[in-house]
Design a protein that fits this description.
This protein is an alpha+beta fold and about 130 residues long. The protein has helices spanning about 5-25, 30-60, 120-134, and strands at about 70-80, 85-90, 95-100, 105-110. A 4-stranded antiparallel β-sheet has the order 1-2-3-4, with helices on one face. It is elongated, with a radius of gyration of 29 Å.
C-alpha cells in the first residue's frame, strides 16, 4: 500500500469522525457559534496587534528612508557579512562611505553626482569612477 493511499484513507476516517461528532453536538449550535465568533475575534485582534508591532519595528529600525531628509542614501551594497559601501548625499554633494559595525570611513567625495535610478550599485559606482577619471 502506498504512502498516499494510507494518507488519504486516514484523512477520510478523520472527516467521517468529525462529521459524526458534529451531528451528535448539533443541539449546542448556539454555543458553537459563540465559540466560533470568539475565535475569529481573537484571531483578528492578534493580526491587528501584529500589524502594529511590525509598523513599530519598521519605524524604529528606520527601514523606510524618508524622502525629505537632509542626508539621503543614494545606493548601498553589502561587501561582507557586516560591511557595506554606501553613496550618501548631503547638500547636493555625494560621498562614498565604507561602513563597518565599528566605524564609518569616507572613501571618496564624488566630483560628479550619481543620478538616482533603479540601476544596481555596481553600475552607479562604475559611473562615478568613469566620471572621476575623466
Amino acid at each position: 500500500m502506498s504512502y498516499l493511499t494510507v494518507l488519504l484513507s486516514n484523512a477520510a476516517v478523520a472527516i467521517e469522525e468529525t462529521t459524526a461528532s458534529q451531528v451528535v453536538s448539533s443541539g449546542s449550535n448556539s454555543t458553537s457559534y459563540v465559540s466560533t465568533l470568539a475565535n475569529m475575534l481573537g484571531g483578528l485582534i492578534v493580526v491587528i496587534a501584529l500589524i502594529f508591532l511590525l509598523a513599530y519595528i519598521v519605524k524604529r529600525l528606520n527601514l523606510v528612508p524618508s524622502q525629505n531628509a537632509v542626508i539621503k542614501t543614494i545606493a548601498m551594497t553589502q561587501v561582507g557579512q557586516k560591511e557595506k559601501l554606501m553613496v550618501v548625499e548631503i547638500n547636493q554633494q555625494q560621498y562614498l562611505l565604507g561602513v563597518t559595525p565599528h566605524q564609518i570611513n569616507l572613501l571618496d567625495k564624488l566630483a560628479q553626482p550619481i543620478e538616482e535610478s533603479n540601476h544596481s550599485f555596481a553600475k552607479n559606482l562604475q559611473q562615478a569612477k568613469e566620471r572621476h577619471h575623466e
